Amino acid sequence: MTRRTLYDAVTRSRAAELYDEGYGVRSIADLIHVPYAAVRQWIDTYRSVGIEGLMVMGHKYNRYSFETKVAAARAVVDEGMPKAEAMAKFGIASMTPLKNWMKAYREGGPEALRPKPKGRPKGSASPPKKPTREQELERRVQKPEAENAYLKKSMALKAERRSRTARRQRP
């Protein structure tokens, strides 16, 4: 269960209206009694994708092309563009994917942002190998050896039980 408080579309809409009226993020947070970090995220989303993106926030996952991911990450990491400006320029609805792309871009370059194949790879299970002649002969020898060891152990346990019961009956 998440500890984050979810706010309704009316609250987010009111924050956007106050922003359009000229209020700052901290003032909006105080006026509508919402944490500053949440309002800041809403305003960044509002500035980048508009009121429609703000209203569907938290309900819909956007998919971005490889080119968009690379361009946005490169703009912020290499060119020093502010994150909010990059979100607006490339139409990114949330700060989280942009931060993830930036991290991947720093660690592995543009190739780290390529889409990864989903699911289990086809043909990943190798077919069973046919045993060699030596392996087959070894298996054939080991089977009777294991059977003999089992029988010997069984006979020893039975003999031990017999000796215990024989001692108890005589007194």
TrEMBL record:
<comment type="similarity">
    <text>Belongs to the IS150/IS1296 orfA family.</text>
</comment>
<feature type="domain" description="Insertion element IS150 protein InsJ-like helix-turn-helix">
    <location>
        <begin position="71"/>
        <end position="122"/>
    </location>
</feature>
<dbReference type="InterPro" id="IPR009057">
    <property type="entry name" value="Homeodomain-like_sf"/>
</dbReference>
<dbReference type="Pfam" id="PF13518">
    <property type="entry name" value="HTH_28"/>
</dbReference>
<dbReference type="InterPro" id="IPR010921">
    <property type="entry name" value="Trp_repressor/repl_initiator"/>
</dbReference>
<protein>
    <recommendedName>
        <fullName>Insertion element IS150 protein InsJ-like helix-turn-helix domain-containing protein</fullName>
    </recommendedName>
</protein>
<dbReference type="InterPro" id="IPR055247">
    <property type="entry name" value="InsJ-like_HTH"/>
</dbReference>
<dbReference type="GO" id="GO:0043565">
    <property type="term" value="F:sequence-specific DNA binding"/>
</dbReference>
<dbReference type="InterPro" id="IPR036388">
    <property type="entry name" value="WH-like_DNA-bd_sf"/>
</dbReference>
<dbReference type="InterPro" id="IPR052057">
    <property type="entry name" value="IS150/IS1296_orfA-like"/>
</dbReference>
<feature type="compositionally biased region" description="Basic and acidic residues">
    <location>
        <begin position="131"/>
        <end position="146"/>
    </location>
</feature>
<feature type="region of interest" description="Disordered">
    <location>
        <begin position="106"/>
        <end position="171"/>
    </location>
</feature>
<dbReference type="Pfam" id="PF13384">
    <property type="entry name" value="HTH_23"/>
</dbReference>
